[in-house]
Structure prediction request, 135 residues.
Amino acid sequence: MSVELYDPKLVNLIVGGIIITGFAEDSFIAVEKMEDTFTEYVGAKGEVSMAENANETGEITITLARTSPSIPYLNKLGLAKGENALVPVQVVDLNTNATNVSGNDARVRKPANLEHGIEINEREFTIFVPYMDMR
Prediction:
């Protein structure tokens, strides 16, 4: 019997060659495919067929502390247009049994919303990945 360990310090996000830092507490990176991998069809007598879905798009949502030095860089990408907006992205997890994610021509959907208060709050960014590879 073995004990599995997880260390969040071993999870890194790289956007356009820049390592993103200053993540918020709790869940700081979320990865999601935009659609199911296949669509099923069940006939009147129970025959099942499946159609493969060619949609490889996905999103990476990240949550940063308001004090993160990466916010200006991601805000700049969220305002960029055309080819200047396209960057490679990677989620590199060095933990045991990890899933790594990558894609080229990714794009930050928009700059983060601003919220100011008496405590350190968070900023959220969504990165669209047109051809997401999850391994």
